[in-house]
Amino acid sequence: MPSWSELQPFIVSGLALGGVYALSGVGMVVLYQATGVVYLAFGAVGAMGALIAWSLTHAGVPGWVGWLACVAFGGVVTLGYGMVFGPALAKRDPLVKAVATLGLTLVLFGVMDLLWTTSGGQSRAITLPTDTGAFMIGQVQVNWTQVIGLGVGVAITAGIGAFLRYTKLGTAMRAMANDREITATLGVPVRRVEAAAWLGCGVLAGVAGLLLADLVALDAATLTFLVISSLAATLIARLRSITVTFLAAIAIGLVHDLLTPIQALSNYRDMTPFVLAAVALLVLSRRRVMTSAREEA
After folding, report:
1. Total domains present in the chain
2. What is the pTM of this model?
């Protein structure tokens, strides 16, 4: 087992990674609440946005333009998909909705493989200005990108929680989560509310892709399938609570990185989202069964 001093850097990186997972998970939960769609293309959208940002900066464009392009790409693609396919998916089964977004994932992944081929050993990396600024916490060096990763996750979770509770648009989204048809009959502009949810989720996908490209790696496959960790956090929260999603995402990020220095377990760290989600779902199911049994008694 590694010592405490050896584990500390992985705690920092795990918190940063968990913060970005939380950012992604919260976006997926809000979209699901408003539309009923599990957005499996979240990772692919962020990955392609990050590759676009890298291409622009590699061509000499100022870095901030590339970062804005990444976020804008996520918003535009997700909004476009929601406006074209959202109405057709509104009354379909949840499985059909999920498979439809999986199709978008495969299309984007194919485009990335075509435009940004990995042949020739070309290395790509996104470096944010916050990587150079660092400070010490005890004996651990922390850079500002890691702080931003965790801070954005906290801010988005708190901000969206307040948005859903105190704004008219947020109230409309919560109403649609309960009953879409009744909400529409009450005069709520359902299409506009859905458009706002799609756009917001896409913007968060772009931000998450940019941060993960810096914190993890700028690789199409890696960034595309990192959505699994965020999806696991949303499943633990049963696609309802953004607070539980945040806590689950932080736990997944921490456990994943803390397994890295343990040689006997490091090869299994990618199983972290599946294991934690399975354990949480089993515990929750058992509690529901026990509660039902007590009520019947």
Report:
1. 1
2. 0.89
